[in-house]
Amino acid sequence: MKINHIHLESCSSTQEKMKDLNVSNLNTLVTCDNQTKGYGRNNNIWDFIGNSLACSFTLDPHIPILLTTIEIAVIIKMFFQKKITTKETIKLKWPNDIFFNDKKCGGIIIDLISIGNNQKAVIGLGLNFSSNSKYSFLPIDISNLLIKDLAYEMYSYILNNRLETNNIIKMFNNDCLHMNQEVIIDKQSGKFIGLSENGEALLLSNEKIITVTTGRLNINSNL
Predict the structure, then answer these.
(1) Exposure winner among 123, 128, 139, 208, fewest CB in 10 A?
(2) Fold for domain 3-167?
């Protein structure tokens, strides 16, 4: 599967660079060695640490679209779980965060762009490999590896391993950081019991199931 790979020494944001390109229908990957103004959901700042991964790439969105970010998180987990040098398991936090040793080490954002009558998803990924940071990191041996080559390998893996809806939900639920824990999503609270078929969070509260489409999830350690 042909990939158009654009690598930059430095850029403000791979996500913004990607949106400035005329990507047409090509599978396009943008990587950089230094990202100066990376951001996550709701424009939260993402600090770039040296020897870490900052990239953006295009995909056909999953249908339903809400599952796209979750699908990519699951596939990224599959890819990197084989490469980490310890026995710990990578965990996922709804809807877009990647955790290791109970701390965030990466995140995913998604923007939709129109190409003719079709939509493409532009996926942004930040993933920390450096132990010299305040964040958690994935313990991967990158001593003989260029980050841009790792990104290319990961993108190829994603393109060749897209998942059906039922598998996305099953695998996310299995790897969920907060399954069966009390959580708060904005003003909604309850026990997180999994995903709906559309990728929404399902919370059990007062013997009723609440469906939450979007929001910031916090694990409620006081309950």
Answers:
(1) 208
(2) BirA Bifunctional Protein; domain 2 (3.30.930)
